[in-house]
Amino acid sequence: MSHRRLDHHLEPLVEDERFALYQSIARYADDELAPQLLGWERSKVLVPDQVIRQLGDMGIFGLPIPEEHGGQGGGLTDLLLAGLALSYQSQSVAITPGAAVSLGANPLYKFGNNSQKQQHLSDLAAGNRMFAFGLSEPGRGSDAANPEVVATRDGEHFILRGEKCWSTNAAWASHIVVHALTDPDGRNGHRSTCFIIPRDREGVHYQEMEGKTVWPLSSTGSIALDGVKADAGDILGDLDGGFEVMITTLNGGRLFIASLALGSLAFALDKTSKYVQERKQFGGPIGRFQRVQDVVLEMEIALERNLTWLIQIGRRYDEGTMEREQASKLKIDCSRVASSLLLDAMEVCGGVAGLDEFGLSRHSADLFVTRVGEGSNRALMTQAVRPLLSDIADQLQ
Question: Span 247-395: which CATH code?
Answer without folding.
Answer: 1.20.140.10
